[in-house]
């Protein structure tokens, strides 16, 4: 498994669909995951300060329910990619539970759980480094893919440092 860190939600020129960018913690590859507006909102909401304890958001509710049952999220994994869809699982008490990537990432961010990807997923789907890419990977045209690659070529790993030193 490869450790990932959440970079950002970006709205792309490809039909204005949101894209989650997940970067290798100890590498340069970026895993771009297309999501819905609802999925992107879930991830962005997970980054916000928790709301009213009497009216928790969905991900807070899941985490609170797990805690009430004595469970915690061990880790979140991106475990597959087929037909334009990534598969994820949330591991609770050693048991993997299937989830949408956006919900899994939101739970990892909100609950402080490690975010991981299978090496085969990164090798097949990540952009940069030794990753294989193709026009169908991101669902874009050749021109859109070239713009995305140019964006990735214009950044460096320090741009994604989200540790304490990177905070203003």
Which terms summarize this structure?
168 residues; alpha+beta; seven-stranded mixed β-sheet; 5 helices; globular
Question: Which SSEs are present, and which pair or pack?
Answer:
Blueprint: E1 2-11, E2 18-24, E3 30-34, H1 37-46, H2 58-68, E4 73-82, E5 85-92, E6 95-99, H3 101-111, E7 115-117, H4 119-125, H5 142-153
Parallel strand pairs: 4-7
Antiparallel strand pairs: 1-2, 1-7, 2-3, 4-5, 5-6
Helix pairs in contact: 1-3, 2-3
Question: What do these coordinates show?
Answer:
By secondary structure, the protein is of the alpha+beta class. The protein contains 5 helices and 7 strands. It has helices spanning 37-46, 58-68, 101-111, 119-125, 142-153; strands spanning 2-11, 18-24, 30-34, 73-82, 85-92, 95-99, 115-117. Strands 3-2-1-7-4-5-6 form a 7-stranded mixed sheet. The radius of gyration is 16 Å and the shape is globular. The protein starts with a strand and ends in a 15-residue tail after the last helix. Mean pLDDT is 81; it is low at 130-141.
Query: Can you count the beta strands?
Result: 7
The averaged pLDDT comes out at 81
The proportion of residues in beta strands is 25-35%
User: What is the N-to-C succession of helices and strands?
Assistant: EEEHHEEEHEHH
Binned, the helix content reads 25-40%
- Summarize the main sheet: 7 strands, mixed
Order of strands across the main sheet:
3-2-1-7-4-5-6
Distance between the termini: 31 Å
Which stretches of 5+ consecutive residues score pLDDT under 50? Answer: 130-141
Q: Count helical runs.
A: 5
Radius of gyration: 16 Å
Structural class computed from helices and strand pairing: alpha+beta
What is the molecular shape?
globular
């Amino acid at each position: 498994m490869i450790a990932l860190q959440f970079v950002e939600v970006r709205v792309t020129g490809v039909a204005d669909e949101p894209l989650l960018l997940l970067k290798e913690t100890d590498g340069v590859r970026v895993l771009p995951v297309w999501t819905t507006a609802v999925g992107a909102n879930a991830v962005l909401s997970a980054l916000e300060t928790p709301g009213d304890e009497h009216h928790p958001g969905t991900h807070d509710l899941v985490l609170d329910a797990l805690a009430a049952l004595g469970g915690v999220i061990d880790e979140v994994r991106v475990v597959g990619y087929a037909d334009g869809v990534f598969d994820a699982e949330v591991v609770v008490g050693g048991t993997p539970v299937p989830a949408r990537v956006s919900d899994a990432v939101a739970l990892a961010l909100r609950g402080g759980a490690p975010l991981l990807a299978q090496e085969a997923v990164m090798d097949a789907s990540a952009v940069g480094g030794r990753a294989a890419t193709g026009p169908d990977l991101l669902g874009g045209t050749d021109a859109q893919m070239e713009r995305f690659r140019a964006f990735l070529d214009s950044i460096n790993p320090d741009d994604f440092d989200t540790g304490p030193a990177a905070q203003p």
